[in-house]
Structure formats: structure tokens, C-alpha cells
Design a protein that fits this description.
Length: about 300
């Protein structure tokens, strides 16, 4: 075997250059601050803040629609002197927009991270696997609640400034607003937990968005079939088959006239099964959250 030349033997193995890197000696903020940063980044991602103009088009289009509807309702009320729709009814009417908002926002929160393979980087820091999933879930819940609650606040301000009963009228309006905000929170929690779970199953955003829409829309025909069965109990329990009608059932049971006023009628009939609807809603959210946490334990392992 030939001997290496002297030039090769004398070549240096490598040179280390000092380019000024230093160890970080500042405060290490720890798990709580990492969780908070991840949550805040998630909320910003939902609304396209800090991202390209293209990422802002859909969320702000939806925000514009719900805001215009709220302004129109407030203007009509100022002319008629009575509400066209309650705050809870507004949340119901905008639920179809919430569905598509979830279908776009949930994949942005989790599918992009799965596809780009950055999860090992997240979990190499002092961030437990459950914290990642919970931070994303809370961010989506917050975004959906703001989407429904912000326009309700506009409706409240319009009613408060045009009421003829002074402070008493403002107080009564506030008492109507608070249940509406809680009802918006129910929509947000149910839709966010189910939507984020579905989106976490794939790294392809198009598939994730389609899956979210399918889960919510494909359960609607089941409700229709159960509603026409000859059994009254089956008719009153039909709403349990779909997340949307499940939320409406809880709202009818808990809010009563604030959601379905007696003089208007209509609304799905739940009979005396209101507590069942509430229990199923709790179990749905708890089950979806548990599966979401299990999903990220598997992804991270």
C-alpha cells in the first residue's frame, strides 16, 4: 500500500476559530414561561399575526363578517328599540363560520409542526409533552371565544348607549351579555377540542382541514335520521350525535329563553334530557383532550 505523501501527512486536522460565541448567563425562565410563549404564539398564529399577508386573509375575513353582522344587529336594535337576536342566538347563528374557522386554524396550530418535524426541538427543552398540546388547545379556545365574544361586546355597547332605562337598562343588558359569553365559551371549548384532535392526526394541512369539516358535517345527517324516528326519546336525544346540536342542546337547557324565546318558538326539542346533553358535552371535551394528550405522547416518543 503506498505511503501518503508528505503534504498529506502534514495537513492540519482542523482549526478552531474564536468568533465570539459566549455562554448564556441570563435568567432561565423555565416551564411556565415556555408554556406562555407557546400559547401566545398559538393565538397569534390563529389570527395570522406576525405572518404573511396571505395568512391573514381568511381569519380577518371571518372577523369582518361577524363584526359586520354585530354592527348591523346593533343598528337595527337602536331603531326598533328591541333586540332582533339575543347574544346567545348570535353565537348560534355564527356557528357555521366557527366550523370553517376551526378547519383552517387547527391545522395551522399543529399540522405544520408535524410536517416540518420540529416537535423534537420543542421537547428537547423544559416543555412536557402535555404542555405543548394544552397550550395549543387553549390558544384555539381563546381564538374561537374572541371570534364570538368580540361581536357580542359590540352588540352590548350599541344597546348600552341607546337604552332608555339608564343604568338599569345597562345592567339588564349586562345580565343578558354574560350568559351569551359563556355560551360562546361552550362553542369554543367543544369545537376546539374536537377540531384540534382531528388536525393532530396528520401533518398535511389540507387533509386535516377536510377531516375537521367531515367530522362536524357528516354527523349532521345522523341527527336528521334520529329526529324522524317514531320514538320521542330518540327524537329528543338526536342532538347528541353531532357536536353542533350537542352544544345547542346544552344551551337550550341552561339558557332557556335567552336562546329560544317563548314568543319565537323553534329550536331543537330536548325534552327533559338537558342534563344528559351537559354530561355528554363534558365527556366529549374530556375524551377529546385525553386522546389529544395520548397522541402527543406517541408522537414525542
Amino acid at each position: 500500500m503506498p505511503e501518503p505523501s508528505s503534504a498529506v501527512r502534514s495537513a492540519p486536522a482542523g482549526v478552531i476559530h474564536d468568533i465570539g460565541y459566549q455562554r448564556y448567563e441570563g435568567p432561565r425562565l423555565g416551564r411556565r414561561h415556555v408554556f406562555g410563549a407557546l400559547y401566545l404564539h398559538g393565538v397569534r398564529t390563529i389570527f395570522g399575526l406576525g405572518r404573511s399577508a396571505k395568512a391573514k386573509i381568511f381569519p380577518w375575513l371571518v372577523i369582518g363578517i361577524v363584526t359586520l353582522v354585530a354592527v348591523a344587529l346593533a343598528a337595527v336594535r337602536s331603531q326598533l328599540g328591541e333586540p332582533v337576536a339575543t347574544y346567545a342566538q348570535f353565537a348560534d347563528a355564527m356557528s357555521w363560520l366557527v366550523l370553517f374557522f376551526v378547519a383552517v386554524a387547527a391545522p395551522e396550530l399543529v399540522s405544520r409542526d408535524l410536517r416540518s418535524g420540529v416537535l423534537p426541538l420543542y421537547f428537547s427543552r423544559p416543555l412536557p409533552r402535555a404542555d405543548y398540546a394544552i397550550a395549543k388547545l387553549l390558544a384555539l379556545v381563546t381564538g374561537l371565544w374572541l371570534l364570538l365574544g368580540g361581536p357580542q361586546l359590540i352588540m352590548f355597547l350599541g344597546a348600552a348607549f341607546t337604552t332608555k332605562d339608564g343604568l338599569k337598562g345597562v345592567w339588564n343588558e349586562l345580565l343578558d351579555l354574560l350568559p351569551g359569553l359563556l355560551y360562546a365559551g361552550l362553542w369554543a371549548v367543544v369545537f376546539a377540542s374536537v377540531g384540534l384532535l382531528v388536525a393532530s392526526l396528520t401533518g398535511k394541512r389540507a387533509f386535516a382541514a377536510g377531516g375537521v369539516v367531515a367530522v362536524f358535517l357528516m354527523t349532521t345527517p345522523i341527527v336528521g335520521v334520529l329526529s324522524i324516528l317514531p320514538s320521542r326519546a330518540a327524537n329528543e336525544l338526536a342532538g347528541l350525535a353531532s357536536p353542533s346540536t350537542l352544544v345547542q342542546g346544552v344551551g337550550i337547557w341552561s339558557l332557556g329563553d335567552l336562546l329560544v324565546p317563548e314568543n319565537q318558538g323553534g329550536g331543537p326539542s330536548i325534552g327533559g334530557f338537558g342534563p344528559v346533553y351537559a354530561l355528554v358535552a363534558v365527556l366529549l371535551v374530556a375524551g377529546a383532550t385525553t386522546l389529544l394528550l395520548a397522541r402527543y405522547r406517541k408522537v414525542a416518543s
